[in-house]
Design the sequence.
């Protein structure tokens, strides 16, 4: 993973930083040279004054070194200045013995410079050779400590460095602006793609999008078209399979009906036919459940296209499911009731999916009750969600099974007849497709099972 | 088997493209005393409908040549009010709502039990005959709204006027809950202010009298009472 922003930043910023660094090194060197040159001029001026005075006095210096020679150096840096006068053979005539003699002495009126140390302090030295009238030669050395030099160099360097920093800041600001304006269409595009419903088969429109993104949009739209075709083919396949299977089951059912109505059938044969009919009905039920599973995914696609679902409240749906299951509850000796019902909860979701959720959960609760018990249903508002809660006093689900009960064809109790392990899988997948959630738990009284289904009131589809 | 006794032979048009299913359904319906004509395509059904009149039509939706929907639309646009019961293997609630809007009177998804089909058919025919069959049923319980008599297996049920009022209210909405309030209201004509407690007493007595009738008054906590056929 890499981001365009960081790449762009790296490609623009790093070269600028490198150039800047190189330039600073070069600048440092040149400021050093400039500062040294300034110092040279001072040293040379001072040495010349001394040399000329000595030359006028004929080599010796009864009056000593003229003060003017050192006034040149007066500044705020408090540098120390040393001097030495040597004869042609390098012997010290006057001045500071701590000052090293020049390695090499040039001809008259010449100056040479070198660095040295006087009593542990770094100094820059000028050696100025003065021809005397008598043909002799003296060398005047003047040395100054480096503080002034360093200060000047620093001042010069800081000026340049400040200019660099200003330049960098300007580049950075320009980059931020460029990112904002150049990458904004890209960001907006990716947000738009991210906000789409999962599985949405909508085409992306190519208006107000930079030219560079057009191939991407084209490819996405092409993909959506192909996906749509594939899904439609799949849908047709499922529909025709369902049609054939149901028709076959319908024939089988009417044949069994016919057989059972025949007066010559013995009670044993009748029982057998009834069992066969029961099996047929179970098979039909599985087909229906599998079809529902197949249609949930298709439902996601249709949800975006279909007009608003009829406004049936969740309470009405749950009530009709309870009525439908009442005879079953009666047979199982289960007391069924609706404890709380908020009749204002209308979800913009296809009502047959809501019905499927309620039916499977209440049906499960009744069938898994060992012996007499109570199943209580609640329909409530919980914040932005509609809450469907089903509490039973049955044996609950062992923790070992909790993770797997939502898997297709998983059965906690494989010995239980007429169960295929699809009910909870269907509920779970419908919840997921509606962006709701389902949670299994233990009710407050500590035994039984509590199932909470939360579905977003705003619906799973964009308004 | 009493339910199958039909005095006037009703004439049905069965429009189903699967010849096997059509044959078996015809046999079953003949057994029950209906006269059945079969059409195997929408075109065929259309032709028959131009010349014949039927008491009811059993209509499959996926028909060759002319779909069930088109046939239904054509029928209704010609102001033909014959009762139509759709029997279809396409099953989604969306479809059902759509077809009922198109003018179908009822809907049954394949596969279905013949008892269920015949019950729906009887209901449709009764509704269509206008006068209304005075007899309504739930399990083995019968109610004749003319004579105001409840019967269990041809045996008249002895009820007090209050029990009668409660059971009549429940009978009018078989398979649906009736709130305690509505039940209490049904007793108002008897000049009776009923407390919930008293209502429970009537329900308990009714349950006792309905024992073994294959009919139960089910309590649905929070909703009310519901009359329903149960096995046994």
Sequence:
């Amino acid at each position: 993973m890499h981001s365009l922003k960081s790449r762009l930043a790296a490609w623009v910023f790093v070269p600028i930083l490198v150039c800047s660094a190189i330039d600073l090194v070069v600048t440092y060197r040149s400021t050093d040279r400039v500062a040294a040159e300034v110092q040279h001029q001072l040293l040379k001026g001072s040495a010349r004054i001394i040399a000329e005075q000595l030359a006028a006095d004929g080599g010796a210096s009864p009056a000593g070194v003229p003060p003017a020679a050192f006034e040149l150096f007066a500044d705020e840096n408090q540098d120390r200045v040393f001097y030495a006068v040597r004869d042609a053979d390098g012997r010290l005539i006057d001045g500071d013995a701590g000052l090293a003699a020049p390695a090499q002495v040039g001809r008259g009126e010449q100056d040479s410079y070198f660095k040295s140390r006087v009593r542990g302090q770094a100094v820059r030295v000028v050696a100025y050779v003065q021809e005397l009238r008598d043909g002799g030669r003296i060398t005047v050395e003047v040395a100054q400590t480096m503080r002034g030099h360093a200060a000047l160099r620093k001042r010069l360097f800081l000026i340049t460095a400040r200019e660099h920093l200003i330049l960098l800041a300007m580049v950075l600001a320009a980059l931020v602006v460029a990112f904002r304006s150049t990458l904004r269409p890209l960001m907006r595009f990716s947000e738009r793609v991210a906000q789409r419903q999962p599985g949405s088969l909508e085409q992306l429109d190519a208006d107000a999008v930079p030219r560079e993104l057009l191939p991407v949009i084209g490819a996405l739209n092409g993909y959506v078209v192909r996906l749509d075709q594939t899904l439609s083919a799949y849908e047709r396949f499922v529909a025709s399979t369902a049609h054939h299977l149901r028709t076959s089951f319908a024939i089988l059912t009417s044949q069994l009906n016919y057989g059972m109505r025949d007066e010559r059938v013995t009670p044993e044969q009748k029982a057998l036919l009834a069992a066969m009919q029961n099996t047929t009905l179970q098979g039909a039920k599985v087909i229906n459940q599998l079809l529902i599973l197949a249609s949930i995914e298709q439902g996601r696609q249709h949800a975006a296209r279909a007009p608003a679902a009829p406004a049936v409240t969740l309470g009405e749906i749950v009530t009709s499911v309870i009525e439908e299951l009442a005879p079953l509850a009666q047979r199982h000796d289960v007391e069924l009731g609706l404890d709380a019902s908020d009749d204002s909860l209308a979800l913009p979701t296809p009502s047959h999916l809501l019905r499927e959720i309620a039916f499977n959960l209440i049906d499960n609760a009744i069938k898994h009750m060992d012996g007499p018990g109570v199943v209580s249903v609640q329909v409530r508002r919980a914040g932005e969600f509609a809450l469907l809660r089903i509490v039973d006093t049955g044996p609950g689900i062992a923790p070992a099974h909790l993770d797997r009960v939502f898997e297709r064809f998983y059965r906690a109790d494989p010995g239980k007849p007429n169960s295929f392990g699809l009910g909870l899988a269907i509920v779970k997948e419908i919840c997921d497709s509606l962006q709701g959630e389902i949670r299994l738990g233990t009710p407050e009284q500590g035994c039984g099972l509590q199932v909470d289904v939360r579905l977003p009131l705003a619906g799973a589809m964009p308004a | 088997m009493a339910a199958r006794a039909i005095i006037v032979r009703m004439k049905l048009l069965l429009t189903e493209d699967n010849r096997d299913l059509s044959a078996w359904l015809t046999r079953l319906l003949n057994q029950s005393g209906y006269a059945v004509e079969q059409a195997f395509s929408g075109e065929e059904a259309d032709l028959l409908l131009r010349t014949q009149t039927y008491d009811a039509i059993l209509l499959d939706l996926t028909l060759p040549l002319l779909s069930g929907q088109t046939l239904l639309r054509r029928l209704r646009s010609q102001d033909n009010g014959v009762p139509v019961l759709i029997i279809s293997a396409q099953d989604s609630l969306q479809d059902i709502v759509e077809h009922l809007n198109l003018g179908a009177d009822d809907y049954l998804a394949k596969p279905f039990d013949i008892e269920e089909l015949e019950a729906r058919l009887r209901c449709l025919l009764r509704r269509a005959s206008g006068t209304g069959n005075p007899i309504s049923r739930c399990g083995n319980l019968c109610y004749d709204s003319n004579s105001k008599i409840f019967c269990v297996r041809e045996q008249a049920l002895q009820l007090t006027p209050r029990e009668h009022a409660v059971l009549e209210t429940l009978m009018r909405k078989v398979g649906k809950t009736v709130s305690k309030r509505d039940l209490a209201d049904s007793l108002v004509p008897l000049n009776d202010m009923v407390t919930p407690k008293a209502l429970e007493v009537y329900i308990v007595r009714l349950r006792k009298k309905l024992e073994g009738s294959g009919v139960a008054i089910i309590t649905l906590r929070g909703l009310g009472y519901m009359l329903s056929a149960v096995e046994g």
Q: What stands out?
A: The first helix of chain B runs from residue 19 to 31. The radius of gyration of chain B is 21 Å. Residues 2-128 of chain B form a domain with the Rossmann fold fold (CATH 3.40.50.2300). The CA atoms of residues 214 and 231 of chain B lie 6 Å apart.
